[in-house]
UniProtKB/TrEMBL annotation, chain A:
One GO molecular-function entry: oxidoreductase activity
Name the UniProt record assigns to this protein: Glutamate synthase
Gene3D superfamilies, per the entry: Glutamate synthase, alpha subunit, C-terminal domain
Top-rank taxon, per record: Bacteria
TrEMBL record, chain B:
Glutamate synthase domain mapped to chain residues: 81-335, 364-407
Source organism superkingdom: Bacteria
Transmembrane regions: none
InterPro entries: Aldolase_TIM, GltB, GltB_archl_type, Glu_synthdom
Name assigned to this protein: FMN-binding glutamate synthase family protein
Gene3D superfamilies, per database record: Aldolase class I
A GO BP annotation: glutamate biosynthetic process
Region (Disordered): 114-133
Record keywords: Oxidoreductase
Signal sequence segment: none
């Protein structure tokens, strides 16, 4: 790869027999000077492969992605404490399996943003499609707009804060972590939930099997305030923790029993 | 069998084929307990299988190779379509995915040791990768399952290949349930769930639906692992022709087809016995799909479900598989169903040769358990040696047959080398009924 101080062209690589377009590292500033160490990838001129290859073996700590054009797997598999700003809309699995990076999408994202995240922060300025934060083990996913169905499905420790609404079947089989919804939640919320905790400010369309409303005690209000604050939302007034309801597992389906068969 | 006279026929007693003793016992058990039977293993019913095929050894019209002298190669390369580092295996017999959780850590380590000793691969399972398994496995395939229990990108990058699991032969369309008695502290921690609860494994992936999505998921997996690792797609045999085509269209480098004789750690008996198709019926469908795509031998086909002998290996390969995978047979090689545990099997209501309560966690052989005392009975080094021995036998048996058919590589076996003993097997395997040129459903004179 060309040295970052010398904007140039990476030789065309062959990956899996398919020729990959030449990847160009461009400077972020109009005058061609590198700006405060930020490296910019223009996905109209280079490939996701070139971007991810650099992010997996980074030679800088700050990256900017221009014209993402809804491409899939942008910044997937990053495992270093990088800062990545994506200027536009991203496709499926943006920041998938993120482990330590701070990724901000200045637009909306497709299915599976930050799926299986281990650590770090992923922030979506717009809306998110299905399965946002699916199976995430850790880190914080903030969706400033709304998220579609299956938000937080099978979450395993991730924290998710959604500024707007979430779609149906969210937090399905959610194992651990916290899901905060500042708007409404769709039908079937928390179906077959394990130990994850859900906070909803608006209305829940309907609760899934074994998901029940629970008392919001002071310790829950405290963690909710922390999560809102971390997401950039002031936990006061209309967003005060007392305006939220808490949902979690009744733990009635933890052991298979025939008398529960109507619940499955 | 208890309670039945030893020689029923001499007493004039006639057993019903419809209500045989097993069926009667099943009804009685259901009436007594109010719950269906959950067990391990694969389909037990009589099915058209590799036993219903025979090889046509060379004579005048074909020229054999000299046994013990002339070379008959067994190596196989898996996943060289897109991956920078395809798997190069010394033998075409791999170890199928079985989870830590379903199996003890010692058993997983033994599988890795045995596979590595003979230069083949082993596979993780639901619940993630254990250090014991990674440490002892030269070639380790990392399963990517709907539950994503224990799934993390660090282990993904440590793997030698990735297997996206859509289903398994014992239960196509089904998820799983690991019962609480097997959820030890370590298993629970790896899966991020409370210890001791019955643990459901999802039947659908949480972040993709259908082949178009899967293509993008596979792209993501390639991106995360920098296009280094082969991507397998595993399907339970049902609509195999279409599923293989869609798996390939989604980008699979290797397709794994698991027939209904393939085992499970815990599934309803009614599911195991009544859902899916036999391995024998699945292989020609898969091969047809690959041929029509022009990708047979380019996208490799691994077949599993009821592989027991080198003859089975050779027959699967003659039908077009590039390799096979074994699960149940590997556990037996480690010591499962060993008669030396006869008294203990009897003590838990089973018998050596019949034990299938893998879900129960009380395995006297210490393989399908998380009980520390039982698990300690299996010495991973000794288990690995036994498995390696068994894998060598499978390989030598397959070579013996291949040489007899004049093949210098087991992969060169072909359907033309086979005939069927039954009309059913001939129709499913698409080879002629022995002594005829008749392939039912394919035309030709009887």
């Amino acid at each position: 790869m060309a040295p970052l101080s010398d904007p140039g062209t990476v030789d065309p690589a062959t990956v899996g027999g398919a020729a990959v377009e030449a990847a160009t590292l461009t400077e972020s500033a109009a005058d061609g000077a590198r700006t405060a160490g930020t490296v910019t990838f223009d996905l109209a001129a280079t490939t996701v492969r070139a971007l991810n290859s650099e992010l997996h073996a980074p030679s800088a700590t700050s990256y900017e992605v221009l014209r993402p054009q809804g491409a899939h797997a942008i910044a997937a598999g990053v495992h270093a404490p990088l800062t990545v700003d994506i200027r536009g809309h991203a496709g499926y699995y943006c920041a998938g399996m993120n482990d330590g990076a701070t990724v901000t999408v200045h637009g909306s994202v497709g299915t599976g943003v930050a799926e299986n995240m281990m650590s770090g922060v992923v922030r979506v300025r717009g809306d998110a499609s299905q399965s946002a934060g699916a199976t995430g083990h850790g880190g914080l996913l903030v969706i400033e707009g709304s998220a579609s169905m299956r938000c937080g499905i099978s979450m395993k420790g991730i924290d998710i804060v959604v500024g707007g609404d979430i779609g149906p079947m969210s937090a399905f089989m959610a194992q651990a972590g916290r899901l905060v919804v500042c708007g409404d939640a769709g039908d079937g919320l928390g179906d077959s939930i394990y130990e994850a905790r859900i906070y909803v400010r608006g209305a829940a369309g309907g609760l899934g099997a074994d998901c029940v409303e629970k008392e919001l005690r002071p310790e829950h209000a405290a963690e909710l305030a922390e999560l809102l604050t971390a997401a950039g939302i002031e936990p006061t007034g209309a967003y005060a923790p007392t305006r939220f309801r808490r949902y979690g597992s009744a733990r009635r389906l933890y052991h298979f029993a025939t008398h529960n068969s109507a619940a499955y | 069998m208890t309670g039945y006279p030893p020689d029923t026929a001499s007493l004039g007693l006639r057993e019903s084929h419809t209500f045989d003793r097993a069926t009667i016992a099943g009804i009685q058990r259901a009436a007594a307990t109010g719950i269906y039977d959950v067990r391990g293993g694969g389909a037990k019913r009589r099915l058209p299988h590799f036993d219903d095929l025979l090889f046509l050894g060379a004579s005048m019209s074909r020229y054999p190779l000299e046994g013990y002298r002339e070379r008959c190669a067994t190596d196989v390369v898996l996943g060289d379509r897109n991956a920078r580092y395809p798997l190069h295996l010394a033998i075409p017999v791999t170890i199928a995915g079985m989870s830590f959780g379903a199996l003890s850590a010692q058993a997983k380590e033994a599988l890795g040791r045995g596979a590595s000793e003979v230069g083949t691969s082993t596979t993780t399972g639901d619940g993630g990768m254990t250090p014991e398994e990674r440490g002892q496995s030269k070639h380790l395939v990392y399963q990517y399952l709907p539950s994503r229990y224990g799934m993390n990108p660090t282990d993904l990058r440590k793997a030698d290949a990735i297997e996206v699991v859509l289903g398994q032969g014992a239960k196509p369309g089904g998820g799983g349930m690991l019962l609480g008695q097997k959820i030890s502290g370590r298993v629970a921690q790896m899966r991020t769930l409370p210890a001791g609860i019955d643990q459901r494994s999802a039947c659908r992936h949480p972040d993709w639906t259908g082949p178009d999505d899967l293509a993008i998921k596979i792209l993501e997996l390639r991106e995360i692992t920098d296009w280094e690792k082969p991507i397998y797609v595993k399907i339970g045999a049902s609509r195999t022709y279409y599923d293989v085509k869609l798996a390939v269209a989604s980008g699979a480098d290797v397709v794994v087809v698991d027939g209904m004789q393939g085992g499970t750690a815990a599934t309803q008996d009614v599911f195991i016995e009544h859902v899916g198709i036999p391995t024998l019926a699945a292989i020609p469908q898969a091969v047809q799909a690959l041929r029509e795509l022009g990708l047979h031998r380019k996208v490799q086909l691994i077949v599993s479900g009821g592989i027991r002998t080198g003859a089975d290996v050779a027959k699967a390969m003659a039908l077009g598989a590039d390799a096979v995978a074994i699960g149940t047979a590997a556990l037996i090689a480690l010591g499962d169903n060993d008669p030396r545990h006869a008294d203990e099997y009897a003590g838990i209501g089973s018998a050596a040769g019949f034990y299938d309560d893998y879900q129960d966690g009380r395995d006297p052989a210490g393989i399908t358990t998380q009980d520390p005392e039982l698990a300690a009975r299996l010495d991973p080094a000794e288990g690995g040696r036994r498995l390696a021995n068994y894998l060598r036998v499978l390989t030598m048996e397959a070579q013996t047959i291949a040489r007899a058919c004049g093949k210098s590589h087991v992969r060169n076996l072909e359907p033309e080398d086979l005939v069927a003993l039954t009309i059913e097997a001939a129709a499913m395997a698409r080879v002629p009924l022995a002594g005829t040129s008749w392939i039912p459903g394919q035309g030709g004179a009887p």
